[in-house]
Amino acid sequence: MVSQSANYIRHTDSENTPPVARLSVEPFKVRTGIQGASRRRRALVSGGAHHPRHAIEHAKKRKGQTPSKSPLALRMDVPTISRDVEMGDPTVSKSTASVSLPRRLPRSEITEIPMSTLQAVAPELVHTHIDYIREGLECLGPDMLRVLAGIKAEPVSNVLPKELSMIVNDVSSDMPTHMFAVFSSRQPAPARRRVTLFPAHNLVFATHCANLPILPTSTPALVECAGQEIKVPVIPLCIPSPEVFPQLSTFLYTKRIDHLLASLMPLPTPPPLYRDDPTTVMPLLTQFAQKIADTYTVKTLLLHIAKVHGTWCNTMALGIADERLWCALDTAWEVLLTSLAISTGQPHLMTESA
How many CB atoms lie within 10 A of CB 351? Predict the structure, then answer.
């Protein structure tokens, strides 16, 4: 097993850095503040409205679809370059390869969060409507994310432990309750598994992921000051694309469409593409796709398409039904497919399959 820590876990070379001094917070700030925070309904300044029109439009289109049906696929011929070196005479031969991509990213049937999942992590909130809990978490999520950024975990050997010690350097919100040991479901069984560790708050994932297994009970540790050590249970989490799990995890804490798109797209996405009615922004979408096609190679476009597709695979595997998340995925997918079609000289494929 090859293990590594997530980007927002401090590395061992920061041991001599003095911890950030912060005032201690009241116990379980997140859980006790959920209902009060949820009443402060707010539109995101940079992240779009709570119910983006793009997401609603796509939801309407998909309402009558059967999830088991295979989505319409686009076949594009993309250029490949091979180098043949013989007798000191290098030659470059250009050819094409066929790439098949779904025209749209299908959704599974929206699944309600099992009551047993919430009961296991926060029994005191079991009678609170889950939408209120999510709205409260949206207000408190950035502070919780900062706590995760201040975590420094101890190294892991070849055997995954049941518990892991970590040093806390930010006490502005609740402490993480678990450490996810994330690995790929696509790795061959005999292969040495690559495992990445991500500290997490059980309430955030339990209220968004319908397919998440019931997490073992773990109450946030009470930390008085920065630099204190805590222990949390380690939970193996098998998903299709671990490499893009940080983007999805961060979104669940912040609900920022703009930040998620910035992590998936090669250029900043114009806000009207995910805020306005999709029937009115097609000229802007085409213009933005053209700019990307003019700036980046086909290889780079395929790398970003793989990021979006990987995030979609993780979303499906975890059973997340957040409309803003789907809005971001729909927007990114439409733009990148259009860019790829333009770059390969096949723009007609997008209009023919619309």
Answer: 10
For residue 15, the SS3 value is coil
**Cα–Cα distance between 273 and 265 in angstroms, integer?**
13
DSSP β-bridge partners for residue 231: 165
Residues in the chain: 354
Average pLDDT over residues 82-110: 68
For 349, other C-beta atoms within 10 Å of its C-beta total: 17
More confident residue, 226 or 44: 226
Average pLDDT over residues 186-207: 86
Biggest alpha carbon distance in the chain? Answer: 76
For tokens 């950024």, the residue is 149
Q: Which amino acid is at 273?
A: L
**Among 120, 133, 311, which residue's Cα sits nearest to residue 207?**
133
pTM, 2 dp: 0.80
**123 secondary structure, DSSP code:** G
Which region holds residue 48: left if phi is over 0, alpha if psi is between -120 and 50, else beta?
left
Residue type, 25: V
Mean pLDDT of all residues belonging to the chain: 80
Buried b (16+ CB within 10 A) or exposed e, 290-315: ebbbeebebeebbebbebbbbbbbbb
CA dist., res. 268 & res. 335, Å (int): 12
pLDDT per position as a tens digit, 158-183: 788 999 999 999 998 999 999 999 99
Pairing relation of β-strands 2-5 and 194-200?
A: parallel
The pLDDT score that the predictor gives to residue 11 is 37
User: How far is it, in rounded angstroms, from Cα 16 to Cα 40?
Assistant: 41
The strand pairing partners of 98, in sequence order, are 77
What is 263-301 written as a DSSP string? HHSSSPPPTHHHHS-TTT-HHHHHHHHHHHHHHS-HHHH
User: What number of other Cβ atoms are within 10 A of residue 41's Cβ?
Assistant: 11
